[in-house]
Amino acid sequence: MKKLLITASLAALIASSGVVAYDDKAADAAKEHRHGLMQSIKNSALSMRRIMSGDLDQAENYSALATALSASTGIAKAAFNENTVGKGKGHTTAKDHIWDNWEDFSARLDKLDADVKALERAAMHNNVGGSKNELVQVFKNCKSCHDEYRSEH
Ligand code: HEC
Question: Closest residue (by CA) to atom 28 of ligand 1?
Answer without folding.
Answer: 38
